[in-house]
């Protein structure tokens, strides 16, 4: 990282003129998946809470959230899982913040399920089922709690709006269209409040017990993305309004953004059946060329092969009729044709359950030429790629990328299926350095910034590798929910 401080981190002049002053026990900034549970939890534990949101409503995304039932899990296996998650983040994650998730998520999830029922949210509790691979890896000695908000297009964003309404009924004062712009500090440097902008002017929100920053990531601030994640400049984003406001305010208050490289989350679960996204069949780029060993590279890492402007996150999974009919490739089970068909836009199906229709992007064709045309890729290059791939399959040896022979299956039997995946930036998962209780550290680590807390994706070092690990399905929402519930309860009882 360059030594010169970037312009977006330079501290502005303090806001000094206010039209009003309000006093609370706790002020939470950001009505998302960590912020709404935090405010609701704090209120239920007796605190007087303000929730500030710069948008007109609560905002979040995603469907799956994962936690652990610590009381029903083997303690050594829990620590083993935490060690695996630290390793999956390039050994750069802070163990203490992952431990908080593991230790507190069981209580948080049981509470959240109760509140979701009370708010009328649409969700299911699936337990170990979505985590089966990990469950088996850890000798079935872990008990997962998995909350799934859906079916799509319903998601956590809708659930947060419903939970925010419940929070309001329980006494939380929610201020929409009220962006927080600066943290207010006393002479000692402790954070004692927030300067937030309303249509009439600035309001001073004082917090006796603490200010919790839960403003999400910075994907919509082009300067921050260029500085911390220059690789993804050609990728589209999935959200709006995520401009690193909390990151900046906490740096101005004396905190520090974690070191590069920052973790990025780029996924596509919606273009085709999720059961195909890691299948070891042929994958090509927009030019029609094969680009990876499909056995080795999971969907969450595909972005690293698609940085160039010509690709910009687009790639294509190719299947033929035999593989689809068998619903199997080597030792990998695949979804059936009927399950795949609901993702084909022009297919004649009665219902398309649990999908986001505008995002489906799967195509069926009776020839490879027709498939190339439907996918919008260069036909000549694509046909040459398939011919070469079929030669490798015939010989049973992948001398181009080294894929195992059991996954080399000729692409020659119609109908042909192509899934046009488009990975976009879901989240920049990097934030402010905190301790294991999510208290913000001073930039030189000489102590804490009293009164300042960071949770969710504005909180740093839950991850640390180049890409978000999918070892635990729903980990990001899981730690957001957990941190929100835990810190709200803790501060209320302070």
Descriptive account of the structure:
It is a single chain. With 494 residues, the chain is of the alpha+beta class. Helix content is 28%, strand content 21%. It has twelve helices and 19 strands. It has helices at 35-44, 75-88, 95-119, 132-137, 156-169, 222-228, 245-252, 321-326, 337-341, 368-375, 379-395, 475-492; strands at 20-29, 49-52, 64-68, 123-125, 144-149, 173-175, 180-185, 191-198, 201-213, 263-267, 282-284, 314-319, 328-329, 332-333, 362-365, 416-422, 424-429, 439-441, 448-454. A hairpin with a 6-residue loop joins strand 18 and strand 19 (448-454). Helix 1 runs parallel beside helix 5, helix 1 (35-44) runs parallel beside helix 12 and helix 3 (95-119) packs across helix 5. The longest helix is centred in the first third of the chain and has 25 residues, at 95-119.
Main traits of this protein?
elongated, 8-stranded mixed β-sheet, 4-stranded antiparallel β-sheet, 28% helix, 494 residues, 21% strand, alpha+beta
Distance between the termini: 38 Å
The number of distinct helices, counting runs of at least 4 residues, comes to: 12
Secondary structure: helix percent: 25-40%
Could you give the count of β-strands?
19
Gyration radius (Cα, Å) is 24 Å
| Overall shape | elongated
Structural class: alpha+beta
Question: What is the strand content?
Answer: 15-25%
Oligomer: single chain
Largest sheet: 8 strands, mixed
Low-confidence stretches: none
Q: What is the residue-averaged pLDDT?
A: 96
Question: Which helices and strands appear, and what pairs or packs with what?
Answer:
Blueprint: E1 20-29, H1 35-44, E2 49-52, E3 64-68, H2 75-88, H3 95-119, E4 123-125, H4 132-137, E5 144-149, H5 156-169, E6 173-175, E7 180-185, E8 191-198, E9 201-213, H6 222-228, H7 245-252, E10 263-267, E11 282-284, E12 314-319, H8 321-326, E13 328-329, E14 332-333, H9 337-341, E15 362-365, H10 368-375, H11 379-395, E16 416-422, E17 424-429, E18 439-441, E19 448-454, H12 475-492
Parallel strand pairs: 1-2, 1-9, 2-6, 9-19
Antiparallel strand pairs: 3-5, 4-5, 7-8, 8-9, 10-17, 11-12, 12-16, 13-14, 15-16, 18-19
Helix pairs in contact: 1-5, 1-12, 2-3, 3-5, 3-12
